From TrEMBL:
Ranges of residues in domain C2H2-type: 85-112, 113-140, 141-168, 169-196, 197-224
Subcellular location: Nucleus
Provenance organism: Ixodes ricinus (Common tick)
Domain of life: Eukaryota
Protein name as annotated: Putative c2h2-type zn-finger protein
Length: 234
């Protein structure tokens, strides 16, 4: 007789009930997760998946099972719409405990995910992964219309608007519209007069960070733009 493969999965194994037979891949039954939309035919995989949710698995004592994949997905979507995890510091609620923990760091300022190559730290692991691409130069998001590639999907979306001509960010005070939200924010400061970028060495302040960087060179004497035909720099 084959050994019971349900052991070694921790508490997750109990979520499918006590079994005296090996967990296996089934041909006609789908198993779903209560905490997300994951479904599989493999009993071993769903046990490991449920255990990986950690604290969240306590609400999934009876994972959905059905011969119909769509029925299982419908059940997981129903659970996903439930938001039992409430923030104690504001009114927000979440479907998963991990989402609440991520949110709570916004209140506490905790940044447990530290970069190994620089002093930066982040509240979420996903933000650390994005940051790491700056060090590695990895650009997995490739434009389908030109050779450009980007470290972040949001940068690719912004770039694609250059190809389509789409300008979804409209100024509320004039007819101008922009391809990127950051362009609209910079433009809006012309209307409001806001100058959030302040020089640390003099009273000057600027509407855009690029203007502050140029201004700082006046203090430092830096001249990064060198003429290729003579020794002059600017």
């Amino acid at each position: 007789m084959e050994p019971d493969q349900s052991s070694g999965h921790g508490d997750g194994a109990t979520l499918l009930g006590e079994t005296s037979y090996p967990l296996k891949v089934t041909e006609d039954v789908w198993f779903g997760c209560c905490s997300c939309t994951y479904v599989t035919r493999d009993q071993r995989v769903i046990v490991s998946h449920l255990a990986a949710h950690g604290d969240e698995q306590s609400k999934c004592q009876h994972p959905p099972m059905s011969r119909s994949k769509s029925q299982v997905l419908g059940n997981t979507q129903k659970h996903k719409s439930e938001k039992p995890f409430k923030c104690k510091l504001c009114h927000k609620v979440f479907a998963q405990d991990s989402h609440l923990r991520n949110h709570t760091r916004m209140h506490t300022g905790e940044k447990p995910f530290k970069c190994k190559l620089c002093p930066q730290a982040f509240a979420q692991n996903s933000n650390l992964r994005k940051h790491n691409r700056m060090h590695t130069g990895k650009k997995p998001f490739k434009c389908k219309q030109c050779p450009q590639a980007f470290a972040r999907n949001s940068h690719l979306r912004n770039h694609n608007q250059m190809h389509t001509g789409e300008k979804p960010f409209k100024c509320k005070q004039c007819p101008l519209a922009f391809a990127q939200d950051s362009y609209l924010r910079n433009h809006t400061r012309k209307h409001t007069g806001e100058k959030p970028f302040k020089c640390k060495l003099c009273p000057q302040a600027f509407a855009q960070n690029s203007y502050l960087r140029k201004h700082n060179r006046m203090h430092t004497g830096e001249k990064p733009f060198k003429c290729k035909q003579c020794p002059e720099a600017f």
